[in-house]
Predict the 3D structure of the following.
Amino acid sequence: MRYDRASTSTVLRICALVQFLRAQAVNGLHYFPDAVDERRFTALRRLAAELSARIDTRAADEIEAEFGTDAGPQTPRLGVVLLVTRADGARLLVPTAPGAVGLPRDLVAVDGHPLDTLKRMMADLRLTPVAEPVLVGICDGMTAGELGRHTLHLAFELSDDASRAVSSRGSWSTDANTPLDALTDRVLNPDGAATETSGPIDVPSEVLSICERVRALAVEGLSSHDSFNVERFTRITSVIDETVAPAGRNELTLPRTAVDTAQNTPTVGAETLVVDGRGRILLLQRPDTGEWAMPGGACEVGESADATAVRETEEETGLKVTVDRLVGVFDNRRVGAGGAAIRMIAVYAARLVDPDAQAVTTAEARAVAWFDPDQIAALNLFHGHRRKIDAALSALRNGEVNVI
């Protein structure tokens, strides 16, 4: 059976919704809910499995059993994608999907590091580069149109002559008509049109029915005694309303496929190096320890890393910022914060949308203040933040992206 473009697009939107609901369920169960909220989040996990079964080849019970192995906190997965370009412009491509090829990629092992993953990939491809690959950005798999669990891919580029020895797994191509997978197309065309993710869509009646049950459960959850769970259920109702139109489309037949949902990776978060026109750095004082830190937090499934940086900054300080660029990716274990729940942190340089805006204190910030770089050394900083701030400032000065 052949499926039209609308059916394929709908499957991607439903898959994104499934992964969002799955993450909300596991995160809600992770943060010590009371018995009533535990029942709600368990029911949400079941509904996410039922929804997934409408686009997956597996039954809801099998999917729910897999979801039941999740351990929070749940963030997007972390992967590595490698762009290798030869002097003649040929790119290294590998088989990635039926009828398509793409850039080499792999997921970071749950206890691993992106640079270790990169080295293993290069060894498997038998690449002998004359220079180290450079991190050029983070590609959001959901925006690219990947089907499966939301993955943030660290995009490394190797433009030197790396063709001395390549295994049979890869081939060089200069053919502009070569069919490429969604992730590769996005990496090669970062400014191109993203997969459509805005506006509610028509869905089959059975999908609409599940979504209505999810919404009803979330509305019930607004009576939770936990303010964080109220926020979670509020977000669920908003995402349902943003995704699904209130009328079913019974004639739409959705393709079913084996959805990639397995393999956990390190948890991912984002922090913001906000610098004002005088070169000062914005820091907040944590209410739990009294230590100073950059704004930041865990990435939400369905959210890009730079969007996390923007959201967390506003939530914690009341300030709206614009991201300028990625300046570092850090393993908290390697910067003195090994006990942190979020392992890998993307740090973005950013600036205020309104230079005259004033910060506010919040439940997540006892105080917010601006500091000259030479004042940082005297501050009592939260675990790992001294190393991250120093490396981020160095990268900002030198036009680099540090990976530690």
User: Anything to note?
Assistant: Residues 203 and 249 are 5 Å apart (CA to CA). The radius of gyration is 22 Å. The first strand starts at residue 77 and ends at 84.
